[in-house]
Amino acid sequence: MASLLNPYLSFDGNARQALEFYKEVFGGLLRLNTYGDFGRPGTDNADKIMHGMLTSAAGFTLMGADMPPGMTYVPGNNFAVSVSGEDEPELRGYWEKLSGGGSVAVPLEKQMWGDVFGMCTDRFGIPWMVNINQPAD
């Protein structure tokens, strides 16, 4: 699978409604995972979207989520550019270049869903997410 570059949108608690709306607009397959799906059941945000991905027949990919706990939604911080795929050396190279001279919010390391993931802001102030897909066991 080739690496993908796509927008990643953040929402203030209404990611499910927004992503369902975009599905109505663009069609395609919408996959949603909540914080509760990944070990946070019974919390205030258990039903909020931790990760959503819409893939359209036209080839569009749009990702989004509700702001993570502890992060404040402020218009202007509600997007990032996501780079994802399976080519670990290629994606680690992107990470090193993007994070160099910038700031790292989440180190590039294995996450609870099994992939290697990191978040950084480059030296120009653009937020990036890098996800290295891991083979399913």
UniProtKB/TrEMBL annotation:
User: PANTHER family, alphabetically?
Assistant: PROTEIN YJDN (PTHR33990:SF1), PROTEIN YJDN-RELATED (PTHR33990)
> Which organism does this sequence originate in?
Streptomyces atrovirens
**Protein name, as recorded:** VOC family protein
In this chain the PhnB-like domain maps to 6-130
Q: What superkingdom heads the lineage? A: Bacteria
